[in-house]
Amino acid sequence: MIERLRILFGEVVAHQGFRKYLANTSWLFAEQILRIIAGLLVGIYVARYLGPDKFGLFNYAVAFVAMFASVAKLGLDGILVRDMVNAPERRDVYLGTAFWLKFMGAVFTGAGIAVALAIAENDPTTNLYIGIIASGLIFQSFEVVDFYFQSRVLSKYVSICKISQLLLSSLLKLYFVAINADLFWFVLVGVIDQASLAAALAYAYSKQKKGTFYTRFNKTVATELLRSAKPLIIAGVIVSVYSSIDRVIIKELLGVRDVGLYVAASGLVNALYFLPYLIANSFFPAILNAKQQSEEVYKRRLSLLYKYSISFGFLVSLFVTVFAAPIISLLYGQRFADSSGVLQIYIWNFPLICFSAFFGKWLLAENMHNLLPRFTFVAVVVNVTGCFLLIPLLSITGAALAALSSQLIPVVWFGLTNKSMNKQLKCMFKINY
């Protein structure tokens, strides 16, 4: 048996296609791990330097722009990759059209942010920071180069560009801390990030010697892309609002200092989210294989995956809840001591994320991913409603409870109203059905 496995493994590794996809995935994985590590280490160092007030103001400005940013993306990511794979001979037309669509989307988004700023009751400095961050949306047009490399399974080049950008960004932030720079310079780093990545992607594409695509805009193709992307644009807007609205509401109801305290705790938890999704992606082929074998094997494998992933999430949450205060003190210092209460509540999102990671794969396996926009919409409604009700009563711990409710209530809601979802919950708890 061992010899047969060795031979089989050797044949798989020797397969040229397998090696190509493995190398491509390895670069993507390495880039993501480095980004998470740098985000935690450098991000915490910068937060300690800025303190809750400036750190909160910075994150409020980022969140304000993020609520609009998905419009600039236009939901073209996966669609463009798909179309270039299916019709590689039309590469330049797709790239050129998508480039100018994204550019116009960024301009439209910038105008929308300007209108929102005219309505919002922000001071001139806050509006300046938001305007600087929003200006970086223009450089998102160069993301089309990323999509080209994805379609050719050449993500190595994009990963090198992003790692270079990450290194430059991290060094600049550390330098600004060393010279006691003002918050303005840390805000400016966000634009430098976007501009440097755009320049790196443009250079990487030029080295492919494929010519230029900037003049290849096609109205018919633009119409086709926008029609295909319409559901994704709507879904992107919902996700953007969901991921940013709590910081905006906290600022409006409490102030920027509370935003800083809240983000210090929630950022630590959000950094953990990649782990269950990474595990779910790894086990997705096993889920699909079990579905082909039999319904019983399929249910049993899903049940085990739910059981172990949620148990892991529960243990992590229990540990963080007990040691929240020393964790915050060690990482951020005493100025962020009030973040520990938020961390004790917000960490309980993690077991729910462990469930959601495999739940999303189940939806794909059952071709039911159309439920995701509705699921996210309910989460947004719960989160916004919870923030407005709980923040005035419980301050930032109310925002943490609202975030936790936005993860839990949609699961319960769809478990009660959707037959298939109800079966999944029973499968999770190993109830025969």
Secondary structure topology:
Blueprint (H helix, E strand, L loop, with lengths): L1 H13 L1 H58 L3 H10 L4 H29 L4 H12 L7 H9 L3 H24 L4 H24 L12 H35 L2 H15 L3 H20 L1 H28 L1 H9 L6 H8 L2 H17 L5 H24 L1 H22 L1 H10 L5
Helix pairs in contact: 2-4, 2-5, 2-7, 2-9, 2-10, 3-6, 4-5, 4-6, 4-9, 5-8, 6-7, 7-8, 9-10, 9-16, 10-14, 10-17, 11-12, 11-15, 12-15, 13-14, 14-17, 16-17, 17-18
Explain what this protein looks like in three dimensions:
With 433 residues, this protein is an all-alpha fold. The chain folds into 2 domains: 5-229, no CATH class; 266-428, no CATH class. 85% of the residues lie in helices and 0% in strands. It has helices at residues 2-14, 16-73, 77-86, 91-119, 124-135, 143-151, 155-178, 183-206, 219-253, 256-270, 274-293, 295-322, 324-332, 339-346, 349-365, 371-394, 396-417, 419-428. Helix 9 (219-253) runs parallel beside helix 16.
Tell me the distance between the termini: 37 Å
Number-wise, the strands total 0
Percentage of β-strand residues: under 5%
Overall spatial form:
globular
How do the helices and strands follow one another from N- to C-terminus? HHHHHHHHHHHHHHHHHH
Low-confidence stretches: 4-18
Radius of gyration, in angstroms, nearest whole number? 23 Å
Total domain modules: 2
Into which percent range does the helicity of residues fall?
Answer: over 70%
Q: From the helix content, strand content and strand pairing, which structural class follows?
A: mainly alpha
Q: What does the main sheet amount to?
A: none
Let me know the average pLDDT. 80
Count of separate DSSP helical elements: 18
